[in-house]
Amino acid sequence: MIKNALISVSDKTGVIEFAKELEELGIEIISTGGTEKALKDNGVNTVNISDITGFPECLDGRVKTLHPKVHAGILAVRDNKEHMRELEELNIDTIDMVVVNLYPFEETIKKDNATFEDAIENIDIGGPTMLRSAAKNYKDVIVIIDPRDYERVISEIKQNNNVSEKTRLELAFKVFNHTAFYDSLIASYLKDKSNINGFLDTVTYGYEKVQELRYGENPHQRAAFYKEPIQYGGNLVSATQLHGKELSFNNINDSNAAIGLLKEFDELACIAVKHGNPCGVGVGDNTYKAYMKAYEADPVSIFGGIVVFNSTVDKDTAAEINKIFIEIVIAPKFTDEAIEILESKKNIRILELNCKPSPKVVMEDIKKVNGGILIQDIDDKDYANLSVVTERKPTDKEMKEMLFAWKIVKHVKSNAIVLSKDSMTIGVGPGQVNRIGALEIAIRQAGDKAKGSVMASDAFFPFSDVVEAAAKAGITAIIQPGGSIRDQDSIDACNKYNIAMVFTEMRHFKH
Length: 511
Prior knowledge:
The protein is α/β, with parallel strands linked by helices. It contains 18 helices and 21 strands. 37% of the residues are buried.
């Protein structure tokens, strides 16, 4: 039998109606502070928590429910005769239902004008304590943290004069899941404010579901998209979708790769991505020219791909995009004419997004492995030092082109090779088990364009075979990390073929 319910909520969505339903069922309502006032103002009879504890709320409301008469009433196991005997001796009544949601810490720290003191005051103490007590004793206490569960609980009580153990367990799980998220958010906030660096002995991350996806990488895999609670912009979560179907798992993954590469460029650029790898990159004087370079870099692979810009998409660019099948177009802005043209294709996704993040954002790279996760700093550096290691120095034009290719190869799956000419990719060799294989793919894609191009490699050359193949294709300059015990073999080969080579002293593996 459910005799009473303790209700203390920050989010008052649906609580008035819920309390009235409980009251009609003969369940006494116990409440605190603002919740009590809201209930009474709407005609719900309540008992103040101080009448239960015999102690007034104090410290500006910081202490209301932290009292043995509350927690003993929640935690007592009803089938334990000793527990019930102690309650009787101490004149403590049981509490059969706990309805609590927490101070709005997340909402507070998202406010632009929120102070550190505001954040601290919105760390709930009594709420999580009551919730955890009730969830621990879920067989005897119904615990509700989510207003969406009000109707479910009322329905079961009306039908069965109680709530099933299955439902009670599910509600208890929701409590521990939510309080873990809540505490992870507080920990992350305090870590940021404390300027703690390095890798902690334990880590906890909290994420919020954005949407359930139709499927994962393949139709037989379930999937969902989650976001970090605090957003600083410059990522897909911050985008506004103007047109098209909802994004799929692969759409999100590929768009993230494209956005990451686009952030490398201050100049006007267009990035085309397919299966997580850039298939075309172009820099131009205007959006149209940048797109045409990205398209002409690989007209085959761009089909069904994702295209992102850091400039406004105009009608001419939109018309070119519409000549082939493109899954997604992302840009900071689209002209009205461009939107009208692109929307003529029903399924194309159009997203507005300024890809430049807030400078205060600190990112980590997390990879899930069986049994754990790998955490590393994000790869946000370009090179340690640029040094010319060959007899011939690169021309200014070659150096500029190499730095362009170097930005791109960093975002290609290893082993990676990028060939570029005139600020556009002409050959990309991604994800091979050896470096010569990656170069052969890039050269084959470039064809005759390879002559006079430059090459970027994400890691050093273990043998001189890469330089030999580059020379045969007509490549004139190479940028690579260096660091092999056989670097001199590659340097000698470059000198033999009059190729300029620059070491960056920084590797960019991407697995």
